[in-house]
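As a warm-up, study this chain.
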Amino acid sequence: PHGIPRLHVVPLGMTTRERDQAFTRQMFSPGATLRYASWMSGKILRRAALALSLIFALLLWPNDLFAIATPSPASGIDPHGPPPPAPENPPAAPTNPPLKFRRAALEKFVAAYLDAARASDPEPEGSFFADRVDYHGRPNTSREKIQQELAQDRARWPERRIEQAAQAAVDPMPNGQLRVSLSLHFDFHHEKEQSSDEIIRILLLEPQGPHSFRIVGLSERKPAP
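Now compare it with the structure written out below.
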């Protein structure tokens, strides 16, 4: 190959010992030694030049390429320490993300609910509740049970007057539900009996869409003096 020092051809017809002696004289002759040394020095210089070019290329390479694989101190990860342990139970994606609601739709729902609460028929009011409700501190109360109590309440007070004393206060909950506080004035009549009171009725609403809700919780308290 190119660059390898040439050797003189040993003539044929010589004995093995003569060929070995001639080959040894050629290998260790001053000219062959000089050519071999020149070839080796050129090879070493070429490899040294290649190594230097690689070193300069690494020194002049953009630093942002190395920053991609180097953890930032602000990330809280020690680049020289062990890798952080993987979480045992990664947080699951929420199955029911909070739904946006419009104030107009909520006010329409509250107005329709109060109209149903004033009616003598308990069925319209009962339709506003979910299948299971936290009703006056009793969790998991069925809608059928609520309608029975609404019917008993109307039998006790057939003449009903319910007025909203102030605008409803709405508090969005972390789970997407809405806490609606209604300031109400009740005035009930039955023959010669009368009952009047002011209460804060708190409805816990589950959005069914941007314009629809279901009552999943109901409680009452006295207004603050």
